[in-house]
Amino acid sequence: MESDDEGPGVVRSLAVTAEDLVAAVEARHQRGAPVVLRATPPFSGRMRARLHVPSDDGPEEGMVHVDPRALLDAEAPPYPRPGDTEDALRSHPTVTYSVEHHHERHERAVAGWRRAVRDHFVDETVIETPAGERTVDVAVLGQ
């Protein structure tokens, strides 16, 4: 049995690297993968969440899984979809569409999104823990 000082109820803040957060959000958009940020026991006052893809075997006991989108504010830019960049390229008056131009344009759009989304990290969020919902501070490392 967990002692009170090791249970998820003691978590007051969640630390995550900017790289892991951006990669997790991107993976959810690119592949629809159920990528989460995971904090593992023993819990402490400040937990570091790491990029994780849950297995199909069901939830891992005692782990805290956080949807990475919960760490972005409501004004975060949408992830650029290939169809949107294709439409923009096809409607451009001076550029002829090609698969190569489309690929380059989409890569630039994604790189721009990766930079821009960093301005939309939240300072706190609500996470679901085995002990119930908890509001925690968010510390994004390496911004």
Task: Describe what this molecule looks like in 3D.
The protein is an alpha/beta fold and 143 residues long. It has two domains: 1-72 and 121-143, no CATH class; 75-120. Helices cover 29% and strands 24% of the residues. The chain is built from three helices and seven strands. The protein has helices at residues 18-31, 82-90, 99-117; strands spanning 13-17, 36-39, 46-48, 50-52, 64-66, 124-129, 132-141. The strands form two sheets. A four-stranded mixed sheet has the order 3-1-7-6. A three-stranded antiparallel sheet has the order 4-2-5, with helices on one face. The longest helix is centred in the C-terminal third of the chain and has 19 residues, at 99-117. The radius of gyration is 18 Å and the shape is elongated. The termini are far apart. Residues 1-5 have low confidence and may be disordered.
